[in-house]
Amino acid sequence: MCGIVGFTGRQQAAPILLEGLSKLEYRGYDSAGVVVRDGDASAEIVKAKGRLKVLSEKTNGGEAVPGTCGIGHTRWATHGEPSENNAHPHSSDDMNVVAVHNGIIENYQEIKDKLLKKGYTFYSQTDTEALVKLVDYYYKKYQVGPIDALAKTMVRVRGSYALAVMFKDYPGEIYVARKDSPMILGIADGESYIASDVPAILKYTRNVYYIGNLEMARLTKGEIEFYNIDGEIIEKELTEIKWDAESAEKGGYEYFMMKEIHEQPKAIRDTINAVVSDGKIDLSSVGITEEQIRDVNQIHIVACGSAYHVGVVAQYVIEDLVRIPVRVELASEFRYRNPLLQDNDMVLIISQSGETADSLAAMREAKNRGIRTLAIVNVVGSSIAREADNVFYTLAGPEIAVATTKAYSCQLVACYLLALEFARVRGTLKDNDYQEMLRELDTLPAKIEKIIEDKERIQWFASKYVNAKDVFFLGRGIDYAICLEGSLKMKEISYVHSEAYAAGELKHGTISLIEDGTLVISVLTQQELYEKMVSNMVEVKSRGACLMGLTTYGHYNIEDTVDFATYIPKTDRHFSASLAVVPLQLMGYYLSLAKGLDVDKPRNLAKSVTVE
Ligand code: G6P
Q: For 459-473, what is each residue's pLDDT tens digit?
């Protein structure tokens, strides 16, 4: 989704903007632009379609646009095709107001019609141009300052926005407004920053403010003032970002995704250690009490993408260990289907970014109905983290590759920990088993390290399938949930059509798609389902499929059936997703690499989907 960076201070703005935007590339974009102002001189806009490199060349690395105050933007097209014309910044015709925007203005057509009647003309197809011109309209009509003009605009528009604006009459200042789209503000000595996400400004400062919904801010050099929608000044607390700048860099790896795959053991260990000490889970940092745990009747897990796949695993694990009903649902469905929620239900939202529009809306729906919301979130201070009743933070650190790996793995572990604690409190797990499972959880990082050590074998196998057209993933129970994630990894970064099926469903349609050479990846980590899975594999093999089998060490007879076998260490059956997902992440990665694709920035995808 769109990325925003802004700077006002003593240094030249353009290089900072370009560098910051490069750190937001992972969000996905199709065009980019900057506007910079040199003192009182008029602001200069430069835009380019395509990669940031083009914008950088056009501005000579920023040198061609001198000035110490500016804003920049990477655009992920929603209204209007990707083009230079539709790229941000957008401005009023007299350059009185120049702005960049992330989000969607739902009633932009109505606003545009109104402004057309008032004599405004439009040069782009974007909703943002209407937004910018509305700010200009109110600013001039009511002869008010920037904050009042923004406040009037906020009352008039519907939708979501992180908006950064420069006004001709206020050199050296940037104004921002926010509703439902991410934005942080950073501060250092004599310098102020804005950004859609922390990595963009981490090199310059770790001191940030989180701006709330329907709030505004005014940035001058080294100072930031916040306002509510009535234009009154409000106080904000400064937060220190604990991530070090290095964790947002590639650190010698060719792609972030490979670096993040390797970071999984540490990320999981950190997430476990944050809530486990002396052989006991302590959820006091999450803020949920034993009484509240006892009261829960049903859990609704709501999430999108890979986080939803975590939910599918969690459904198996929680129902089995805690014996309460769990329903897992896509946030985009949950939010619009008028779900049946009872007083003692709990809605568990899983989100890496904490900004996914559908997950956020689903959570608000639950809250409006008075249902307790517990969020598993990675990004501190994100919208979901701030609004949920309870937050379980995963400690994955910054995840940059669009395809999630370490955040997914931490989310799984967070779900296991919740399941174990719920089971202990509700008495559905014997103390011995609880202790044993906690000890087993502790071994996962080392087991993942062992799987990663063997990555070259997967690379070899993936390179043979560089021309694969269709891939099918088969599994039962938790293995089916793992297949969902393995299949997503493959299609999102390798552009290979892939689908995951519960193996028992094979005969109800999918098997007709199997022909000579079709790659079928089977996951068999669940002992009690092993034989049934082997039967399903034989069925597809006899129809010409080429088979890869993913199972645990010891099941070497699988080699009688498959063309390629890969093994993971044994673990408690509830935790097997944490290990089995790793070879599948590697498979997607190496296939993408072999095809010469940009592993970290797959086409059309965004890391954080902040619009519906
Ligand atoms: C995007 C990302 C996925 C992610 C999903 C949900 O599609 O590419 O990796 O799983 O959004 O994101 P969230 O931040 O809510 O976990």
A: 999 998 888 889 999
Note if 607 is an active site residue.
yes
Distance CA 338, CA 484 (A): 26
Whether 58 sits among the annotated catalytic residues: the reply is: no
Residue 331 CA to ligand 1 centre (angstroms)? 12
Residue nearest to atom 8 of ligand 1 (CA): 607
Angle at 105 between CA 103 and CA 109, to 5 degrees: 150
Q: Which amino acid is at 310?
A: V
- Which parts of the chain sit beneath pLDDT 50? none
Per-residue pLDDT, 246: 64
Q: Which two tokens stand for residue 2?
A: 């769109």
Give the chain's largest Cα–Cα span.
81
Measure the CA–CA gap between 478 and 235, rounded to whole angstroms: 47
Q: How far is the CA of 137 from the centre of ligand 1 (A)?
A: 37
- Ligand 1: centre distance to CA 26 (Å): 12
Report the C-alpha gap between 581 and 589 in whole angstroms: 12
Q: What token pair was written down for 536?
A: 């399903």
Catalytic hit among 133, 259, 406, 607: 607
**Concatenated DSSP letters for 412-475?**
HHHHHHHHHHHHHHTT-S-HHHHHHHHHHHHHHHHHHHHHHHTHHHHHHHHHHTTT--EEEEEE
Q: By the 8 A CB rule, do 553 and 425 touch?
A: no
Q: How far is CA 215 from the centre of its chain?
A: 23
Q: Which residues of 557-574 are buried (b: 16+ CB within 10 A; e: fewer)?
A: ebeebbebbbbbbbbbbb
The per-residue pLDDT for 591 is 94
